[in-house]
Amino acid sequence: MPLVAELDLPTFDHTDPALSGSGYRAAMAGLSGYDGWLAAGPFGSIVLDRESGEFFLRTKDAVFPGLTIGQLFGIDDGPLHQEIVNNIININGDDHRRLRNLVNPALTPRAVDRYRLVMREFLAQLLSAVPAGGRCDFVEAFAKPYPSLTIAAVMGAPLADAPRLHHWSNWIQRQFDATSLMSERELIEQAVTEFYDYADRLIANRRRTPGDDLISALIQAVHEGDRLNDAELRDLVLNILVGGVDTSQSQLAHAVRLLAERPGQWELLRSDPVTYAPRVVEETIRFEPITPFTARITVTEIEHRGVTFPAGSILLISAWHANREPPDEFDITAQRSGRVLTFGAGIHYCVGANLARAEMQEGIAFLAQRVESIELDGEPDYGTPSGIYGLESLPVRLGF
Ligand code: HEM
What we know:
The structure is a single chain. By secondary structure, this protein is α+β, with helices and mostly antiparallel strands. Helices cover about 50% and strands about 10% of the residues. It contains 19 helices and twelve strands. The strands form four sheets. Strands 1-2-8-5-3 form a five-stranded mixed beta sheet. A three-stranded antiparallel beta sheet has the order 4-12-9. Strands 6-7 form a two-stranded antiparallel sheet. Strand 1 and strand 2 form a beta hairpin. Ligand 1 binds next to helix 14, helix 15 and helix 19.
């Protein structure tokens, strides 16, 4: 059986700064690998189909490479080290199962429904700030402030703290970006220290005065007689903050871009927002995943589809490829059958998926009900697919 390193694979560098927008799309679409399922990237192999992607996300023999990245960059003490070791994404087995059993009930579809009303209030506030002519950068006006306001409400934090939460989330997230780790580590460390301190105070406050929020729910969470201690609570709150801001921001911005580029789909959405807003959300998550690659490292030798992956092999699982269905179109009327990998799969499947869906559904339904038309008012400024694939700006003209 050949070793993965012995295969003649097409190459693709997802960290190439030139990759964005239509260039990124063309490069991804043009990639057809070994027997259609494997390509070579700068750090390891790229898995290109759904079945193999799910296999590597679900196997116990591969884990998220967060601890390995930390070691490579010499992060062996201090707040960032503590954060990496305690990050739920780097915890596996029984310890992970225990944390998920305690946190999952606070983020079920029903549990997140309680935040829908406040989401609508935020959207109305943001819309009222758009100038009368309707010209705005959708990212600055909606996509960026909306998730941090939502996460503040979810945590029971003062809404005035939303910009600070955005700042911390953005910086702490850079631990997954090699370039930032090399050049900006001190600022990442500082953000972790500041947020830990902030979270400690918030948790102490919620212990004294519980509310109808996620932290109060996590404080009260009990599974088989077991509870979260303060350190676990603080790390979970951090994981939820860091996981829940740039992601929802980027996915919502892409949804609106896709609609602004397709007036027919926008009209359809407006004809029946209750039916079509959830479909816009699902189709965006499928068609333009903002987490195009999820990483794994093998902890033991794995054989898959006649290829041997030695222990220590790095794999990038491409949700972008796994999610494709012919014809390759964004179509909110299409009946889709397959599972998408945008939220991952297996034990680390995104704990915030229900919250992200609710936020996006509310955002899209609100726009469809309050805005007659959305047109691009300039070229979108795309980010790069290394990490979270977002939009830097999205100039639009809203018609009222
Ligand atoms: C469209 C929005 C989002 C996308 C596309 C997304 C994507 C993902 C993916 C791909 C993973 C799995 C990573 C892996 O297995 O390596 C993940 C895990 C996670 N996400 Fe999300 N996410 C989104 C929104 C959120 C939100 C709103 C929150 C917070 C409420 C959140 C919190 C987390 C956490 C804490 C994990 C780790 C779960 C674990 O290790 O068990 N995410 N997310």
